[in-house]
Fold these 2 entries.
Entry 1:
Amino acid sequence: MTWGLQNRVSRLMKDGRTVMLAVDHGYFQGPTTGLENPRRTVTPLLPYADSLMLTRGVLRTSVDPSQPLPIVLRVSGGTSVLKELSDEVVTTSMEEAIRLNASAVAVSIFVGSEHEKETLANLSETVNAGERYGMPVLAVTAVGREMARDARYLGLACRIAAELGASIVKTYYCEGFRKVVEGCPVPVIIAGGKKVPERDALQLAASAVKDGAVGVDMGRNVFQSSNPVGMIRAVRAVVHEGKGPDAAMQIFEKAPTPKLVR
Ligand code: R5P
């Protein structure tokens, strides 16, 4: 690993753990609930995240360039919810990622889907480009609509991502998650998935960390919460302080209710 790549990875995980705030959903979902106005959603959450995962469009239009948070730039896409999701291309060049001062780039792979091979090629080509500049690649193990999110399938996807050179892998929590982590020789983080009650999302994060994840890349369970700042603070307590879901839930419940920002 080059010094630059190592340095970028360590920006994302200062204590070896990370709370990545995912707000890239619009790249295929359009104006996702809670993210209709990205600036309004993201700004109050910035002080509590370790990094921000998003596309260049939302970064340029909705995030103040003077804010210090490391950026994880999504560079694969080109599909929409109306079409086959696995039919992605690389949308953003490595030079653009460097111009935007990204600390990592993110590419989705769809193992088991129609365009599996192309998405694995997207990852490999991005790793090759990243190696030239010391840019780590986060592989997002996306799940085809009909795929079971079980340890066998997710373990397969995570391992392939690591073998192709990803520096970090994002996947979903599942039964037998420890095996997924053990089979993946690079750090693993989990997505939050669809919005669930806050305590369930905190339980998910706590279980994932207990089973070896280095943190979360969480979106909807933060920004669709009734109190997004309270929720990200509770998630931080789980990831960085090892709090259990009950203790974290107290942090959520005691957090001041959000002011309506226009
Ligand atoms: C896919 O839409 C994205 O890569 C999301 O960033 C990822 O799924 C994490 O977001 P969530 O916690 O909402 O699942």
Note: Residues 22, 24-25, 53, 140, 191-193, 217-221 surround ribose-5-phosphate (CB under 6 Å).
Entry 2:
Amino acid sequence: MSRWSHRHVLDLAAFSLADFTTVLELAQRFRSLPTSGARRLPALQGRLVTSLFFEPSTRTRSSFELAARRLSADVQSFSPASSSLSKGESLLDTARTYVAMGADVLVVRHACAGVPAAMARALDRSGERVAVLNGGDGLHSHPSQGLLDLLTLARWFEPTAPTPAALAGKRIVIVGDVLHSRVARSNLWALTACGADVVLCGPATLLPDGFAAFVQAPPPGQAHDPVECRGTIRIVRQLEEALPGADAVMTLRLQQERMHQHLLTSLDTYHRHYGISHQRLELCGKPVPVLHPGPVNRGVELSGALLDDPSCCLVEEQVRNGIPIRMALLYLLAAAEPDPFTAA
Ligand code: CP
């Protein structure tokens, strides 16, 4: 395992190719653990993982909590509706309260971009040793989703050696509501770092032209790009142009809760132009996998028949891969042992 230097995981823009390789290799080892019987490794025994989800989640929160338990960590959950936030306690004081109870890792989700990073900075300044893992912040970033998508694609292309190299030169089409998608942003950093060429496809209201330059400069606050040579990003407006020659199709949820203007004519019109079905996939010219981070608007981003077809629709495979990816992240941030399997 190569050297891991991150104290927190906030944004995949900060990951080098070696970082992606480390996470994928470790996740692949965790993934090959038996799925029945004694499934726990002692790697995080005595550690406390706290999930601070200020925004709803089904997959990410449960998956992090399961991953922590599979590494024998103690797990603590927080529910905003029944917390002292309603009495005026601030986000940061809430985080400090859990750190005072002994949290080693805070997994943080918030509707506002930058909240996990702001927490990490404030806790670092006060000398706390806690690691912050971004569980999704506003439109900014969803690192564990980007990584589980990467593992899912790498396993499709190279089932026995799912490394970042499996993505080099592949053409990945990302379709839909890129504007509101932290998943798309994390995937743009991850996929281009691995040398994939990304084609973004969607209407101008949900995919502004500026996304073609998304990875050309590191984000504010980051001094340099740790990846020397990235794959390309291209924007096309029609699926008929995007799909021929694609190696994989990634669809995105229409995030209607974040749309405050009339960005869509109707869901039916969206499905007609950008919905993915078996028939549409034939445009790719070969069998290709279809991904979606979930939750899916069934019959909008994906036809119901495609969503229910595991031979090409990898939505459930993505969910399964989320557990070993999150085990890898928790392990890298909180374990004392250099190898999780030495103490097993
Ligand atoms: N993909 C994803 O982040 O799903 P949840 O909102 O259910 O966690």
Note: The CA atoms of residues 148 and 339 lie 21 Å apart.
